[in-house]
Structures
1.
Amino acid sequence: METILEVKDLVKKYNQVVAVDGVSFAIRQGVCFGLLGPNGAGKTTTIEVIEDVIPPTTGEILYKGKSRSPSFREEVGIQFQSTALLNLLTVRETLQTFQSFFTKTNTIEELVKLCRLGEFLDQHNDKISGGQRQRFLLALALVNRPELLILDEPSTGLDPQARRNLWDLIQGIKAEGKTLILTTHYMEEAQYLCDEVAIMDYGKIIARGTPAELIRQYSRGITVVLPRERYALKANSFPLPVREVNDTIEIKTDDVNQCLEHLITHGVDLTDITVRSPNLETVFLNLTGRKLRE
Amino acid sequence: MSFKRLWSILKARNLEFFRDRSAFGWNFLFPFLLVAGFGIIFGGETYTEYKIGVFPSESEQVSIERLNIPQRFKEMNYLKFIGFPNAEEGLEKLKHHRIDFLLKAGDGPHQYWINDASPNGYVVEQMFKASLFPAESTLKAEKKEIQGSATRYIDWLFPGILAMNMMFSALWGVGYVVVRYRKNGVLKRLKVTPLTAFEYITAQAISRIFLLMFTLVIVWTGCDLIFSFRVQGSYLHLFVIFFLGSLSLTALGLVLASRGTSEEFTTGILNFISWPMMFLSEVWFSLEGAPQWVKSFAKIFPLTHMLTAARKVMSDSAGLIDVGPEIMILSLMTLGFLTLGAALFSWNK
């Protein structure tokens, strides 16, 4: 697969504050690339430099191997983290206005079907719910049939159901073979949607790979969790390391069968047992010593 | 430049404006109310009135016929008589400039009081003294009538109010609105599309100029039905002058809109420009007699040139050639403001 976008040694400073500190990565065509990290990590700044909203202090952005030309804006679809739209227009009129800016566009019918806009198409664009608004903003980003779609925290502020719906939409767009860049601080979102991720912290990329690679590399082992009242034994009598966390005890193991055998042997009641696989959240915790939303 | 994109953003801006019913209605109602208000206040022949206190009188309302004061003083124009029970109350009002002249009713010799700090008091004193001479006194002066019909104050004021309304609408409707759009991120969203800054600001300017001219025609027609304005020159020439004026004011609005994300700061700048322009461009009163530097300073405002030209057409039957200097200045100002606005324009800072 060809590289569609390349970021080389990107630095963005605001006076003395370094928001992005020497970031480099390349994205292959057809891949969903996730830029993860806590608030203030530099994700949005990186994205806005890529989008040509703000200039970099130093560094280079290459689109299809060249510096971005005016055609970049024709071929890229963008959804900002938060945005306002032209007032007092309906959803349909706003889509039509944006359609007129581009040479190659989706029809309104295609966008309605793709993003499920039918129920609120003729409502004013500021009189729709949070979930509807995110679907509408996604439709706006798709209006020009983009080759590269950039979504900056698309599901922030949505309830779990609306978030799931949005993920399904994004999966549909991925299935069409489009390249996506997605920023998020929801690890489960990244794990569900992204083929490759880069984890950012304090303006730098601290790890990069597929979700599975990162988990394998930075977060080995499975965690078995039990309510403390079910675990009657003393910690030092158990052959595996045991950690008390609030009202639970956590046992880390590489062999879950062996762990369960030990628990049964020691007469522990397994009624409320939880077995937790490692995820990107634990990757971040292991890399930085902090939780993502701390 | 793409006309499709320009037309689309122009259409969106117009829809936004016409759907905002309150702003739309106010845009027509405000100048109409101003003109109507001033029409009522100054509509009659007496727009400068001197207040004469007379005592003793049982009530504030006095019957001029029954007042025992010089007959010729009673017959003078622009005088309003107010009754007082005694001298003390009259003097109190005179001291605080509530009345211009205080007169004791009765047979002569007449007694009167004026406030030495009041120019109006001095004028009324001269009128009173003149009224004491017999009517048949020989005057070494001859009255000549103005040729043609004299300009009423409302005819003089009306173009000023319309032009002032245009100024506020152009500066706030472009300057403030674009800064608000920059602040809330609308401009940032537009920036990442192929829409160019030139297309965007051109659409804003055309939309506002269309609205200004539309408002002008509606308000003019509405007010004309009530006040029957006298336009000595051509309506077409007047329209051209107002059009050029709206161009230059809108272009000035674009300069103010070119940068900034603070609505508060923009409000300050808009006030800083619009208030001196309103007072020094002869909207409300003539600068005749003002210091030369004030008159020279007033020429930096497009409103001054628009009003000078409009009043020349309305009152003196001037044609476009007669107002050539004003047309030239307005055109140059438009060009200068547009160039500056386009050079400074930023989508997101």
Note: The longest strand of chain A covers residues 3-14.
2.
Amino acid sequence: MSRVGLRALMLVAAVLALGATVSRAAGLPDWAGVWQVKGSMALLSRDNGRMFVPGTRDDPPFIPRYEHRYQADLLRAERQGDPRAKDSLTDTNTLHCFAGMPRLIATPFRYEFIVTPKQTWILIDKAVRHIFTDGRPWPAADARWPLMLGRSRGHWEGDTLVIETVDMRTDMWADTTPLTLSAHASVMERIRKIDPNTLEDEVTIHDPDKFTREWQFTRQYVRADAHEWPDDPELCGGPDDRNPVINGHVTVQLPDVH
Amino acid sequence: MLSRNLASALLWVPLVALAHHSFAMFDMSKDTTLQGTVVQFQWQSPHSWLDIRVKEDRGATHRWGLEMGAPSALYRRGWRQASLKPGDKVTAVMHPLRDGRRGGSLVSVTLPDGAQLFGSGGSAEPAAPPGARP
């Protein structure tokens, strides 16, 4: 390992150790360790088995106009790997090599929480969510613009971290399907440890432009092996990438042409 | 109505949709078995690849590219960087590309010693068994 890499690793270890120490000293819960999502990465139904059955999927509670568009986009997304399809829709995570909020609530990556009195950091692959708990106000209107991770601030209610996230991008898929939110959407999360090996995130998404009601669901994070070394972050592009995005389509480079 | 292919892709391998790219280009409802010789085994993020040379029905030999998960996901399933080397004779099961080209998402491979390893298709978790709900 390079000297720079070793220093970076030592810095991360020091920050994580500091976070655990600070959180204990401040009476905050100890969420040290490595966590992994339990269950589906798709956010859009409590019962995923029914989500493609017409008339039985409850969430997200789109108004009819957006439900119609969502159904059409699902079909376009099905063709995203077909370079001959002219109207296909490619996953924004593929295009940007980055997931935004609220999609980051459920990913296959490791989750680590650094809890301190004034800020909590949630580390998810190459994304770092900054949850400010120092009581700061939102920025002025002219200092706000859409962000991949949105802007998050929070407060503690006992051992529960309550997070509000706003200013999320409207062009990013909100989960593993072509579900997008409006500029007025906000995400409320209530994260708490429900047993020594489980964190639970109660999520409520409010979108007055697209939803008929609030969309609520729960995701759990279970303790993973903290001794396992992290893999590379999700990488895209470069000479070894055999799934380059060409003209907006994710492609497959086969050995005969690779 | 949404086709069964996308439904199954999103239901049974939801993780892969986030891990770099969707696997919608593969027909996840279909398993195809190939017998061939390893040309190259690329152990790399975000997707590893196994390229094999297959002698097809009419005698012609073609290369096939089989996509797999990231090394960390494969390692948890027992894969190692040295699990395969050029020249190994293998039997591979894959979900084929829907466009008919010679490629797919690796389901499993039987090694020369008879051992079997399972591709994770980009998932960080073991794939859900057929009929299960994530």
Note: The beta strands of chain B are 32-42, 49-55, 61-67, 89-96, 103-110, 116-118.
